[in-house]
Design goal:
single chain, 149 residues, alpha/beta, Nucleotidyltransferase, domain 5, five-stranded mixed sheet, 3 helices, 7 strands
């Protein structure tokens, strides 16, 4: 009895059609999710960093953070001063956000923070926003022209 070994042929992968497909998917995703400009009212004390990206016009909840106060939709969260606040005072933000309508929980949160505000306060704000049940948080920047050297 004779046993024959079959050698498998090395299959070749045609990369060109696969790369074409990925390129088309990438172009679709870029055009489908391209941001547009939105109008946001901010306090005079907030000086946002600059960016070239723009936001889409969407319903949103606006939170402003500085070292001195936190505002939700233009209303100051009483009892919360980020610079001097401890964990208990930050839970006031979660309670304030939990009082908003359940329909608003689906809306994204736009976070405006002064460029001089410590990232620590921004990070803590995002954590309490997420703990209140909001899934989408966007950091807002000023739009402007790129400076040429």
């Amino acid at each position: 009895m004779k046993i024959e070994r079959f050698k498998a042929k090395n299959p070749t992968i045609m990369l060109t059609p696969m790369l074409d497909m990925f390129t088309m998917i990438l172009i679709f995703l870029i055009t489908a999710y391209a941001p547009e400009e939105t109008k946001i009212k901010k306090s005079e004390n907030i000086h946002l960093p600059m960016s070239m990206a723009k936001l889409t016009k969407i319903p949103h909840i606006q939170i402003e953070v500085t070292k001195d106060y936190v505002k939700v939709n233009g209303t100051s969260v009483t009892g919360l001063i980020p610079e001097t606040g401890n964990s208990e005072s930050w839970s006031v933000l979660k309670a304030h956000l939990s009082q908003l309508d359940k329909a608003e929980k689906k809306e994204p949160v736009l976070l405006l923070a002064d460029k001089e505000t410590s990232f620590r306060w921004i990070d803590r704000t995002v954590a309490y926003v997420a703990a209140a049940g909001y899934g989408s948080v966007y950091l807002v920047t000023e739009t402007g022209k790129e400076k040429k050297p």
